[in-house]
């Protein structure tokens, strides 16, 4: 920006904005899923109970204030399994829609334990989730543990077979 005399002048400071979100902008909750695969090509899944529903699935959770997506993935892997992990690559960006509104975005990462071997150490409770058990499963065991929701990324796509990042739209019920 130039001043009247032709010299460069700093841009004006931005006007403070309200912390509320305008009605025309969506409020989207970001989170991560972490598919931890061992050097033996086995996927870590955990059995969890939430809202009196018990199922098997990968590690994951929501972004906390002040952290980035990759930081969230590494933190969630450690909180939910006790494992230190190295993120290998982004596998999928999942959009979760409800009644025509985008509500959540999940970033699904392939990760490997670093170092290896490590012992899995599940928390008893994390928020409203109870952790019951864990398994390292092979590709041919996925269907046995996937349950009813075959849309889960790990049930549809073996992590080591995914070569390019996928973007998926999932219509969900609450």
What does this structure look like?
By secondary structure, the protein is mainly β. The protein has a single domain, classed as Alpha-Beta Complex (Nucleoside Triphosphate Pyrophosphohydrolase). The protein has three helices and nine strands. The chain has helices at residues 69-81, 142-146, 153-156; strands at residues 29-36, 43-50, 53-57, 59-62, 85-98, 101-113, 125-126, 129-137, 166-171. It is globular. The N and C termini lie far apart (50 Å). The relative contact order is 0.22. GO terms for molecular function: hydrolase activity. Pfam families: NUDIX (PF00293). Residues 1-29 are annotated as: Disordered. Its cofactor is Mg(2+).
Salient structural properties:
174 residues; Nucleoside Triphosphate Pyrophosphohydrolase; five-stranded mixed β-sheet; globular; NUDIX_hydrolase_CS; NUDIX_hydrolase-like_dom_sf
Helix and strand layout, with pairings?
Elements: E1 29-36, E2 43-50, E3 53-57, E4 59-62, H1 69-81, E5 85-98, E6 101-113, E7 125-126, E8 129-137, H2 142-146, H3 153-156, E9 166-171
Parallel strand pairs: 1-6, 5-9
Antiparallel strand pairs: 1-4, 2-3, 2-8, 5-6, 7-8
In short:
Helix content is 13%, strand content 40%. The protein has 174 residues and is mainly beta.
CATH architecture: Alpha-Beta Complex
CATH superfamily, called what? Answer: Nucleoside Triphosphate Pyrophosphohydrolase
Distance between the termini: 50 Å
- H/E element string? EEEEHEEEEHHE
State the name of the first-level CATH class.
Alpha Beta
Unreliable stretches (pLDDT < 50, length at least 5) are: none
Largest sheet: 5 strands, mixed
Mean pLDDT, as a whole number?
88
Provide the number of structural domains: 1
The outline comes out as: globular
CATH topology: Nucleoside Triphosphate Pyrophosphohydrolase
- Residue share in helix: 10-25%
Compute the CA-based radius of gyration. 20 Å
How many helices does DSSP assign?
Answer: 3
Strand content: 35-45%
Query: Pairing-aware structural class of the strands and helices?
Result: mainly beta
Cross-sheet strand order for the largest sheet: 4-1-6-5-9
Number of strands: 9
